[in-house]
Amino acid sequence: MEEAAGSPEDKEFTGLSNAIAINKEKGDLSVKAVKNMETAVEKGNWVDVVSAVKEIKQEASRKTVKIAVTGNSRNGMSSFINALREIGHEEEDSAPTGEVRSTQKPALYSSSKFPNVDLWDLPGTGVTSQSMENYLEEMDFNKYDLIIIIASEQFSSNHVKLAKAMQSMRRRFYVVWTKLDRDLSTSALPEPQLRQNIQKNIQENLQKEGVEEPPIFLVSNFSPDSLDFIKLRITLTEDLHSIRYHGLFVTLFQVCEEIISKKVEFIKGIIKENNLQEGLGISDPNNLVECQKVFQENFGVDDKSLHQVALTMNQPDTYFTDAMESQVIQRHQQDGSTLSVPHQLSVRVLNFVLCYFDSKHRQQAHVLDEAAEKTKKILHKILKETLLP
Ligand SMILES: Nc1nc2c(ncn2[C@@H]2O[C@H](COP(=O)(O)OP(=O)(O)O)[C@@H](O)[C@H]2O)c(=O)[nH]1
Ligand SMILES: [Mg+2]
After folding, report:
1. pLDDT band at 340 (very low <50, low <70, confident <90, very high)
2. % of the chain surpassing 90 pLDDT
């Protein structure tokens, strides 16, 4: 069952600094699924982490991605929306197009080709706003995940300003040059040459203003099956995936990483108190191999647990076993040094004893850090495989 926004669980959830970001950004993520994931990471139960992340992914897939289509009016923005939706200009529910019927206020369209995507047909620059600054403010581009800048006939200073604004707002954007059919019919140049010239002109105009090159597509809105339209659809599909899951991947990784780090600090406290026997049930804390084994079990990254996760993820047994060997243990074994407790302690050897404990604790802490590093690598692999396969 999903919690409604503002439920008591919601309030509890906002206590976690990173999780707030998830809740605010991904407003439709259920608190329960994120909490399940956090609990599973705390317990070192990766099988449950995988299933919680799958649930979170399911929810993210239903999140609406907002795309804005902008440009100078008459550039072919509304026609482009119809072409992208693969519907004719005369069909019911198509975006109105024409020389005189310019779009006056943002209009929303959707397409079964792109589920859970809002396509916003914006008024062109200059239709309602006095200046470009006003236009940018009025359109509030920050609320969109992706912006498609439409141009035709000439790549104007307005187009460059739009692109520059998108870059400074860190918005993902494309440039789509429409009416290529008209260019081809009026130009004496062969198609490849003409395409190259148009592309170069756009690139140079953007470069002059320090705008990094976005994906550029040259299309005719009357040929929605052309090669560039196919490329555009592929790029769009990939970007929709990235918009939905990449930010989520980063946020979930941070949330889980913080839990792992807190756990490390907690165990380091136990090490300092010389309490590994009672605190973690390690029978011989001087035995680094046993420490490593218990730490790994505690984080759920021992071989047995990892085989089990690999199995639930339909991966081979060896999927996670590229994790590193303990360097501390190797060094310790090479040195032949021992951590056995000196039998007789005296004031004369106090310094030695202090050094001994300091060194022992440092080695145990190092083995712990290695287990935590391995855990983070495995976390990364699990999240990547589940969210960004
Ligand atoms: N030849 C040609 N005409 C187009 C193309 N796209 C749009 N048009 C025409 O350009 C005019 C303006 O198009 P519209 O989509 O309404 O532009 P908007 O104001 O940017 O939404 C209309 O008459 C369209 O039929 C295209 O790819 N090729
Ligand atoms: Mg229009």
Report:
1. very low
2. 71
44 C-beta closer than 6 A to ligand 1: no
What ligand 1 atom has the least distance to the C-alpha of 82? 15
Q: Which domains are assigned to the chain?
A: 1-60+256-389 (no CATH), 65-224 (3.40.50.300)
- The partner residues of 275 in beta bridges, in order of sequence, read none
> Cα separation of 282 and 127, whole Å?
73
Report helix, strand or coil for 70. strand
178 alpha carbon – ligand 1 mean position (Å) = 8
Q: Is there an atom of ligand 1 within 6 Å of 214 CB? A: no
State the chain's mean pLDDT as an integer: 86
Does residue 292 have its Cβ closer than 6 Å to ligand 1?
A: no
**What pLDDT score was predicted for residue 348?**
55
pLDDT digits (tens, 9 = 90+) for 223-237: 999 999 999 999 999
- DSSP labels for 341-376? PPS---GGGHHHHHHHHHHHHHHHHHHHHHHHHHHH
Report CA dihedral (14, 17, 373, 32) to the nearest 10 degrees: 10
Look at ligand 1, atom 16, and give the residue with the nearest C-alpha.
Answer: 97
Residue-wise pLDDT tens digits, 249-284: 999 999 999 999 999 999 999 999 999 999 999 999
pLDDT at 1 over 80: no
The verdict on the CB of residue 99 being under 6 Å from ligand 1 is yes
221 lines ligand 1 (CB under 6 A): yes
Q: How many CB atoms lie within 10 A of CB 373?
A: 15
